[in-house]
Amino acid sequence: MNKEITKKFLKIVVLTLLISYGLDKLVFFSLNKISDKVMTGQSIGKLNQFLSVKDTTAFLVFGNSRANRHIDVDMVGHKGYNMGIDGTGIAYNSALINTLTENKKQFILVHIDTKNFFDTDYEGADIRGLKTKYQRDTNITTALEKSGQLSVLQQFYYSMNYNGNAIGIIKNYFKPSYNYKTYNGYDPISVSADQESMRDIVLSNFASDKECLDNHEVNTMALDYLKSIKTFVEKSPNKTFLFVTSPIYNDTCDLDNIKLAKIMQDLGLEYRDYSNLYKESKDNSLWKDATHMSKKGAEAFSKLLAEKFKNSKY
Amino acid sequence: MLFNSIEYLIFLPIVFIIYWLLKNSYKNQNILLLISSYVFYGWWDYRFLSLIMFSSFLDYFVGQKIEQAIGEKNKKRWLLVSLCSNLGLLGVFKYYNFFADSFASTMSTMGWEVNDLTLNIILPVGISFYTFQTLSYSIDIYRGQIKASKDIVSFFTFVSLFPQLVAGPIERASNLIPQIEKKRNLNITLIKTGVFQIFIGLFRKVAIADNLGVYVDSVYANYEIHNSSTLLVATVFYAFQIYFDFSGYSDIAIGSAKLFGFNFNRNFNFPYFSKTLTEFWRRWHMSLSFWLRDYLYISLGGNRKGIVITYRNLLLTMLLGGLWHGSSWNFVIWGAIHGLFLSFEKYTFSALKIKTFNAFGYIYTFIVVLIAWIFFRASDLQSASIIVTEILSFNYGSLFIGDINAFVNAVLLISIGFLIDLKIFRSNVSLEDYGVRFNTVKLSIIVSIIILMLCLFYSTAENFIYFQF
């Protein structure tokens, strides 16, 4: 490689770095401007809405798609907001809970799943779902940096924060998916007549007996995130926390449930396990699939939660 | 080490800089390439380096022996040593369990229960690729087409050169060894075309293929609950996923090699723009299809021994080509479908005295390829049959979308990928040479746009599809 070639090669490298850096910032700041105004959709809208209502709402629900689909905050009796998001786990929810104002009086329901705590492969990657707020929300930035889930390239190319979400954000900016002012975060699943047969096949195929073959070793990372919530609980005496596992279609192994209940007890966290609530019921209409209840099932479960809370300190 | 990893992003520039600092001695450059290639491979599992070293040593030694042997019989004897050793290794690591399992099943159907004969064998990454590469070396020496290499470092570098080590292109000794055994130069054409191809490859793999894979995986994992529309869309997505995944890998490999002054052979030439399956195989995984043609089809007699033998040879070549991909009956059926339709085309062309089909040929070819892909992607024969039956039952209900963001991204990216392909295809310039059309500023802008697209759309698949082969 002679001098001239070296010069040309360096020119390509330097120009590419400069142009890509500039282009990245242009897109990043444009998306910031747009995304701040987006209040609908799971790309960023729901998170934006949560951040705007979190300190003025008396009842908040955290969790994954099961929390999102199973708990009708209006039925439970409080004016609240359901922050359940598809595909999230304890890392994502721990980070969000830590954004709450400590002294504010609130009832917080955290939906947890046994699978999350005994999944040996769980690395807390779900926290990446908050990357759109990286460097823009102090608590979330701290949680993301601590998680080690961000790419080192993210320090140079900021638009990576919008990875996978850009189209959804732009779409919801121009055409909001729903009226967010009347949205409480709860997204029930209605099962249409032509989906019923598919649902029945799924349920008939569902058997989870292999779960009991595992030794159910707790995932230390999931446990650490749970402990981080516990620390927040201790710092927030005005808040009431309740941890809940909602029903599952056919949980044939209860060893993990027992272990999780013991962990929660040792940590001094209030926990209710409803995994087997509808186990004896053979009513498929309560279900969308083996892990998600239908709107009918969610309403029945929310009603039950409301009744339980009416008779308790909650 | 994966091409789409941070490790490679660090590895490539380091090796590149040291390599060109050693420009005064190509032999020192070769030593560096050999060490780097072993680091590259050892990053995955250093234990299997011994296998590559063994294979390299064997063929280096046998190559010399074939050349030195006097008389056809002696040459053939040494060639057999190479064939048996290389295919033996491949057989043990790749096919032992398949044949043991198939044998046990056959015995069982005949009423004889056989104990479990399968072994816990790990498939070494890239074994199918470097085995074919070393085999072609021995065969070419036997055929008198090349001379045996006298430089052991050069030969070892030929077998293990990192850009093509784990998933090809399967380079011929006649193309690569002469390049390794002389001084390489880097010129602006190689830089431009190499850089352009590396980034196009990254975009194809990380943005397009991996995003398509999200939808494909979710549908194929629960194929029994999906209707015809969903299975058809997932299969179309898979057709593009595997194309962009593998051609993307080849682009990064060929582009990386250019930065070290090497010209690899082309591996893909827009295969979905083919009017016949024959043409498809001239454009798809070209280094494998030409290998099969030159070392298997022609060795079996090609089309020189009458029409029946020609059809047999075609079918046999494609069956073995299918089996090369993996030890599963699905791959055999995939090869059989291609073999049958290639024979059908041969017959039709000869009967109608035509050389190709009209524009409808594009659709015909894509449909045949699509049906065959179902067998390639499905986890077993039963699921593949169910998927084919469901698609052909025309139960076209509402489409399963899954994660709306992922689906929309996939549709957008497949469209961008298709348009890029169409643009290059219509330019009559190969992708390998396309980068030379841009000046340095234009090239930097294009690469920057690709980087931005990667930031916005990268997906996180663990591996390249062809690594499993």
Please provide a written account of the structure.
The complex is a heterodimer of chains A (314) and B (469). Chain A is of the alpha/beta class. Chain A has twelve helices and five strands. The mean pLDDT of chain A is 88. Chain B is an all-alpha fold and 469 residues long. Chain B folds into two domains: 6-184, no CATH class; 189-275 and 357-468, no CATH class. Chain B has 19 helices and no strands. Classes of the chains: A alpha/beta (314), B mainly alpha (469). The A-B interface holds A 1, 5, 8-9, 11-12, 15-16, 19-20, 23-24, 27, 42-43, 86, 151-153, 157, 159-160, 162-168, 171, 194, 198, 201-202, 205 and B 6, 20, 23, 185-188, 191-192, 195, 222, 224-225, 397-398, 403-406, 408-409, 412, 440-441, 443-445, 447-449, 451-452, 455-459.
Residue share in β-strands of chain A: 5-15%
Question: What is the first-to-last residue Cα distance of chain B?
Answer: 16 Å
Number of helices of chain A: 12
- Total count of domains of chain A: 1
Q: What is the chain-wise order of helices and strands of chain B? A: HHHHHHHHHHHHHHHHHHH
Average residue pLDDT of chain B: 89
How much helical structure, as a percent, in the residues of chain A? Answer: 40-55%
